[in-house]
Amino acid sequence: MGTRNPVTWLGSPAFPEAARTALADTQLRRNLRNATTTIRGRRAAAVAELPDWERLRRAGEAIKDRVLAELDTHLERLEAAVTARGGVVHWARDAAEANEIVLRLVGDEREVVKVKSMATAEIGLNEALAAGGVRAVETDLAELIVQLGDDRPSHILVPAIHRNRAEIREIFRRSGLAATGDAPRELAEAARAHLREKFLSCKVAISGANFAVADTGSVVVLESEGNGRMCLTLPEKLITVMGIEKLVPTWQDLEVFLQLLPRSSTAERMNPYTSVWTGVTPGDGPAEFHLVLLDNGRTATLADPTGRQALRCIRCSACLNVCPVYERTGGKSYGSVYPGPIGAILTPQLVDDPHDAQAASLPYASSLCGACFEVCPVRIDIPEVLTHLRARVVSARGRTAESVAMAAAAWVFGDPARYERAQRLGSLARFLGRDGRISRLPGPGAAWTASRDAPVPPRESFREWWRRNRG
């Protein structure tokens, strides 16, 4: 893939700079803290109800790994099953190819309705449609808020999590949606009145997919509002854009994820709206069904034995809600449609260019606390992948001041005598401190002490103390 960038960056600078801007926004931090704390608590309660939750996690992990190991076979089975049931399968190597396919399938229609989809956001489909004279109407309430506010999503599950009710009402007012107040019910009613007309008039709908069953060619979308059901049944033509990793082999495998996903995402025992469609049924639903299978960097990710576990992701967003970095900086800081811990490991691999400054900054957007791994329903070891990607970034940079310093440290730590001599020299740094703290270091150390202090080193090392007192 070279330096080709297959994902749509959302206009942010590299993570450190974007994060500093977010940290200065008090209202944003308050909105995020309130929302993530609430979701965290509800999810923990929902998961605690199941005595076999860990067994379910391991089952989900095993199924996903099996799919990735035999992805070519399962994709061919899926294509055959969809085709046998009247659907048409299209293969897209990258974002440009997928967008071209969808635009061609939309034809002469000037407006389409959309089910919330991370894959279409990843490839910038809305922008590509607009360039072709087609308006895409987001029907998920949070996505609609983001679209009407000319904003960017900041969460996988709740794209408008950074907005409070008063801000949403103002967005609706400016867009001509009549909301009588800022209560959730009133805001939802205003959106419902606006969208109902679109559902009844648009002839083409575009969706993503949570899962596809290779055995039968069935495609599955999980959502909580009913807007997906409207998009998947009323239009004459349905176009689904799906990442090639979203497969499960059988309906029995799907059963596992229908338990894992609702509790991990919305903290519900059962998903409110689970829509399943299999090809085309005359007289029932869309007369045309097109499935666009999207690679867009996934094959390159699959080739990495450590990094490929990111493709297990079922987009539940549990890792975002427990991440201390995400809670303070929000999703926009990541610059990608995939924010939070999963975005920090998935986006750099889809970009597949360790020299890309924005992608290279994402693996460092973590404290490596491990909370993300603890809640992941398919057991993605995000800290392991983060450190793996950090090593890739360092290697790509070649010889730098940091790499020279690390090599020198390795040389010192590799010999006990050298290590002790370094300790004695290091103790001289106490003369740089005041009141037991070092607040400012010269040279390269200045950046480190710009945001933290260090205790002054003792006059005597532990080794020297032990030798003197214990002999």
Number of strands: 12
Average pLDDT reading: 92
Rg on CA atoms, Å: 25 Å
Beta-strand portion reads 5-15%
- Fraction in helix: 40-55%
Q: Span from first to last CA?
A: 61 Å
Q: What topology, given as strand order, has the largest sheet?
A: 1-10-7-4-2-3
- Count of discrete alpha- or pi-helical segments spanning 4 or more residues: 23
**Low-pLDDT segments, ≥5 res:** none
Outline: globular
Structural class: alpha/beta
The biggest sheet amounts to: 6 strands, parallel
Can you describe what's shown?
It is a single chain. This protein has helices at 15-23, 26-48, 53-69, 71-84, 95-106, 118-122, 125-131, 141-148, 165-175, 184-201, 227-233, 251-265, 298-302, 318-322, 324-329, 340-351, 357-361, 371-375, 382-397, 401-413, 416-426, 445-449, 462-470; strands spanning 88-92, 111-114, 135-138, 204-207, 211-213, 218-223, 237-243, 247-248, 273-278, 288-294, 437-438, 454-455. It is of the alpha/beta class and 471 residues long. Helix 3 (53-69) packs across helix 12, helix 9 runs parallel beside helix 10 and helix 16 crosses helix 19 (382-397). The longest helix is centred in the first third of the chain and has 23 residues, at 26-48. The radius of gyration is 25 Å and the shape is globular.
